[in-house]
Design brief:
Layout (H helix, E strand, L loop, with lengths): L6 H16 L4 H26 L5 E4 L10 E4 L1 H24 L8 H17 L3 H20 L4 H32 L4 H9 L3 H22 L7 H8 L2 H7 L2 H15 L13 H17 L7 H20 L4 H31 L12 E2 L2 H16 L5 H12 L6 H31 L4 E2 L11 H15 L1 H17 L1 H7 L7
Parallel strand pairs: 3-4
Antiparallel strand pairs: 1-2
Length: 506
């Protein structure tokens, strides 16, 4: 077994406990240990990615209990990619947090940050449905704390809504787990994939109900319309750096849809094959419309970024909903793009908050301020990325999605919705940019922020834009990796064989 597979889970758990118990009042030490942990996770994730790129699926039996009886971790191309994406985002967001002193507003930022990474990495590596639920709860509990970090009445109200929405989701998740365990006798993904295909007709109804409940739960986590109402207020009231990290949380829902509905309810599931397809595509298209039209309802840059996350997630799920190799590959290319672009816009919002005094990031005409030009340039690049205009990777991602859907009967709807909402998004971001930067540039008064601002604070947002540029420049090798990943997902059998070793009863 490859023991390095467990490090992305164990390392943040140990660092979180250490920071909670011994470093609460020594901020400098806490920062150093937390940053070192994130950098170590990035290095390990890149090494695991290099192994996964060879095409072999690896499994790790925790406690040496064999599948399907024990806790199994599984590393394939998709899991490795998500680990790297999470680690990259964590390092950049943490650098921004340290540079802007956000972690000084409470005692427990770094432990919660590490617990969040524990939940995210665990969700990407787990090989069974119950532990996916466990890691969901870990990352959600940590996100509650990160969301309320810095306090405030608005955050508390939004936090209550966030908790209630996710408690409902967790309850439905447990019901779905119970239904599927009742008819299959297992929760291991690989084992369940074989058993679902051979279910008697009398049990198929319960399995269908359990699968559709899972789709609803994952749709809630991904903020699919109409299950998205918790997201705009949650992301717009929390601190912008926390929201930047949360940009990857919606992708946990997307990842879970891909994993469960290509493996358990994939092509080999018999009458239950492609269970999600009739429901997911209409929901994804409505989410694209709801997210990008919602840009006109945004009253702050953080709200604008939140609606952008919803619209981009809908675009991603449009590709996923087709459940074939070209469309999945296109969606997987678009996945890191939308995560990094959304996070970058939240960091730009935080830069505005630090400069505009009482106006924060509200979409109102305000005075000029120092560094308006570079912050405005970062905003422009973020807007280009989220709307999917050239030359950044969003354009390539949308083009791949449109091309991969040409043969689908729903192609006219997909093309129409994506192209029209791209225009709507351009208008929404242009409206906001003109208020925040262009018209404000004409003001004679120069606002001097009360807090010190260093040029280095621009670097994290600029680094995210740089990664989007790299995603564009290396589009060919990245798309080849995504095509191999999509083919591996659809094949199913290599995953099943890696988990259920020969001679192990199933």
């Amino acid at each position: 077994m490859n023991h390095w597979m467990v490090v992305p889970i164990v390392l943040p758990a140990m660092v979180a406990a250490l920071a909670l118990l011994g470093m609460r009042q020594t901020l400098r030490l806490g920062r150093a240990v937390s940053l070192l942990s994130c950098l170590s996770l990035l290095v390990i994730s890149l090494w695991l990615l290099s192994q996964a790129a060879e095409g072999d699926v690896q499994s790790y039996a925790v406690g040496d209990w064999p599948a399907p009886f024990g806790i199994i971790l599984v590393l394939d191309r998709l899991a490795a990619m998500m680990l790297v994406l999470t680690s990259v985002l964590a390092v950049i967001v943490l650098v921004h947090v340290i540079a802007t002193d956000l972690d000084r507003r409470g005692w427990h930022f770094h432990p919660m940050f590490q617990f969040q990474l524990l939940g995210l990495n665990g969700a990407f590596l787990t090989g069974d449905l119950f532990n996916l639920f466990v890691f969901f709860e870990v990352l959600l509990i940590a996100s509650y704390g990160l969301m309320l970090h810095g306090q405030g009445a608005e955050r508390l109200k939004a936090g209550i809504q966030y908790v209630i929405a996710n408690l409902v989701g967790s309850t439905l998740f447990l019901v779905a787990i119970g239904l599927l365990y009742g008819v299959t006798g297992t929760l291991n993904f690989a084992d369940m994939a074989g058993r679902v295909a051979t279910l008697p007709e009398a049990d198929q109804g319960l399995a269908r109900a359990g699968g559709l409940l899972l789709l609803a739960v994952f749709g809630l986590k991904a903020a699919v319309v109409p299950l998205h109402l918790w997201l705009p207020r949650t992301y717009s009231t929390t601190s912008a750096p926390a929201a930047a990290l949360f940009a990857v949380m919606t992708k946990v829902g997307v990842y879970s849809i891909i994993r469960v509905f290509t493996l358990v309810f994939g092509a080999s599931a018999g009458p239950l094959a492609f269970l999600a397809e009739p429901w997911l595509l209409p929901a994804a298209l409505v989410t694209v419309v709801g997210g990008f039209v919602g840009l006109f309802a945004g009253r702050s840059l953080r709200e604008l970024a939140a609606f952008g996350v919803i619209g981009s997630t809908g675009t991603l799920l449009t590709a996923v909903a087709l459940f074939d190799v070209p469309a999945l590959a296109a969606g997987l290319y678009y996945l890191p793009h939308t995560t990094l672009a959304g996070a970058a816009l939240f960091l730009v919002a935080d830069l505005l908050i630090r400069h505009r005094g009482d106006l924060d990031d509200r979409l109102e005409l305000g005075p000029r301020f120092r560094w308006m030009e570079p912050i405005g340039a970062l905003y422009l690049l973020c807007a280009v990325a989220i709307t999917g205009l050239p030359p950044l990777s969003g354009f390539i991602g949308k083009l791949l999605i449109l091309t991969s859907s040409e043969a689908d009967p729903a192609a006219p709807w997909i093309w129409g919705v994506i192209l029209v909402t791209t225009l709507v998004a351009v208008l929404g971001f242009a409206r906001a940019g003109s208020l925040l930067f262009w018209k404000s540039m004409e003001m004679s008064e120069l606002h001097q922020p009360a807090q010190h601002f260093a040029r280095a604070e621009l670097m994290p947002a600029a680094a995210l834009i740089g990664l989007l540029s790299a995603l564009t420049a290396f589009a060919l090798p990245v798309t080849r990796y995504m095509e191999a990943t999509a083919a591996q997902l659809v094949a199913q059998q290599p995953y099943v064989e890696a988990v259920l070793a020969p001679g192990v009863p199933s």
